[in-house]
Amino acid sequence: MTAFSPARTAATARRVLRQLRHDPRTIALLLIVPCLLLALLSWVFQDSPQVFDRIGAPLLGFFPFTVMFLVTSVATLRERSSGTLERLLSMPLGKLDLLLGYALAFGALAVVQAGIATGLAVGLLGLDIAGSVWALLLVAVLNAVLGTSIGLFTSAFARTEFQAVQFLPAVILPQLLLCGLFAPRGRMPSVLGAVSDVLPLSYAVDAMAQVAARTSLGGDFARDVAVIAGCIVAALALGAATLRRRTP
After folding, report:
1. What range(s) does the ABC transmembrane type-2 domain occupy (predicted)?
2. pLDDT of 73-101, one tens digit each?
3. DSSP class of 1
4. CA 229, 133, 118 angle in degrees (round to 5)?
5. What gap in Å lies between CA 222 and CA 220, rounded to an integer?
6. What is d(CA 180, CA 203) in angstroms, rounded to the nearest whole number?
7. Rounded CA gap, 94 and 240, in Å?
8. 1 in a domain, yes or no?
9. Residue 102 lies in a domain
10. How many domains does the chain fold into?
11. What distance in Å separates the CA atoms of residue 179 and residue 131, rounded to the nearest whole number?
12. Within a domain: residue 36?
């Protein structure tokens, strides 16, 4: 097994960023689509700003999470099906180097994406939050990186780009329905509540809701952030364990 190398990880991240630089449609999907969705949401609730304030912060984390999941899973599968991963892994490049390189590259885009979306929501769309904008930005970035890491993991189970897209309703939509955005988690049937307790998006929504509603953030917020970070690490580790060189 090839030992982990920060230099090889950084080289992988630079390669991915160079490729993305020549793909304006992907960049537009990553940076513009979440902002357009937030603007549309604000427009829908222009006569009910209190509703936008209640759901705007959680969706500020959900939109980047979903977009990063979709782009990362498809991009990784494309490199595997084209034989690029096989050529890369035949070199002194470990699976963890590769996945961390992807995570760094898309994580850098996630910071830009979350910064633009947060600035738009708070500055232009008038999203009213009680907590710190920096705390809101932190959770938004973590959500985007979480979507990246889960996308890297799930791409190992798809053989075509169409199958990778099909993981969106299978992996993302159940989390959206059970995260507490539509109904309080404590009022769900016990089975659904138990499932909700192990889904990472539930903690992301809780963290966003706390930033929106509280001026001071305590142990619950720190716990939610720690759970999100732990899920990122777990997804990357599982992705390294299941990564295949080629699609059969």
Report:
1. 21-246
2. 888 877 777 776 667 666 666 677 777 88
3. -
4. 80
5. 5
6. 9
7. 9
8. no
9. yes
10. 1
11. 21
12. yes
